[in-house]
Amino acid sequence: MDALLTAIVVWLSTNFGLPANFESPRIRFASPAELNFPLKGSVGSEAKKQTPTAEGSSDIVSFYSMESKTIYLADGWTGKTPAELSILVHEMVHHLQNVGQLKFECPQAREELAYQAQDRWLHLFGHDLERDFELDGFSILVKTRCFY
After folding, report:
1. The pLDDT of residue 44
2. Is the per-residue pLDDT at 90 higher than 80?
3. Which terminus of the chain, N or C, has less C-beta within 10 A?
4. Rounded to whole angstroms, how far apart are CA atoms 77 and 102?
5. Please, which contacts does 141-148 make with residues 24 or more away whose CB atoms are closer than 8 Å?
6. What is the crossing angle of helices 109-123 and 82-99, to 10°?
């Protein structure tokens, strides 16, 4: 996992100008119930509290805890597909934003670069956010804007 995280850091730093910090986050696996209730101070893929779509399930696939510097991935995550790896790329953006002490107008603003990086990663393999995660441009726009 360390080699994979290092490669992702180099790719994100080169392609998006994020600080290349090689202090790896903790990686933890969580059940759908645990992912449905992200920790305070967490950001990431669908890391907002949502109503489960069915008993015991959720749209949340991962989140990043800024306080503990931990990426939480769904139980069963293997990293064997471009889509699964893109989830890790998305959360690594949040980790680099956190350890680089980057500031944002609101928590949603952190998501813009994370979604851009995730989508670009997916495009490397002929995939995209819409096909793999049913996230269209308008949905991403809403998830990345500060509404006061």
Report:
1. 57
2. yes
3. C
4. 28
5. 143/108, 143/111, 143/115, 144/108, 144/109, 144/111, 144/112, 144/115, 145/108, 145/109, 146/105, 146/106, 146/108, 146/109, 147/108, 148/106
6. 140
Q: DSSP per residue over 78-119, as a string?
A: ---SHHHHHHHHHHHHHHHHHHTT---SSTTHHHHHHHHHHH
Q: Are 30 and 72 in contact (CB under 8 A)?
A: yes
Q: C-alpha distances in angstroms, 95 versus 65, 88, 126, 142? A: 8, 10, 26, 22
Decide if 144 contacts 115 (C-beta within 8 A).
yes
Cα–chain center distance at 127: 17
H or E stretch including 29?
Answer: strand 26-30
User: H helices within the chain, ranges in order?
Assistant: 2-16, 32-36, 82-99, 109-123, 129-133, 137-143
pLDDT in tens, 40-76: 556 655 433 232 333 344 468 899 999 999 999 999 9
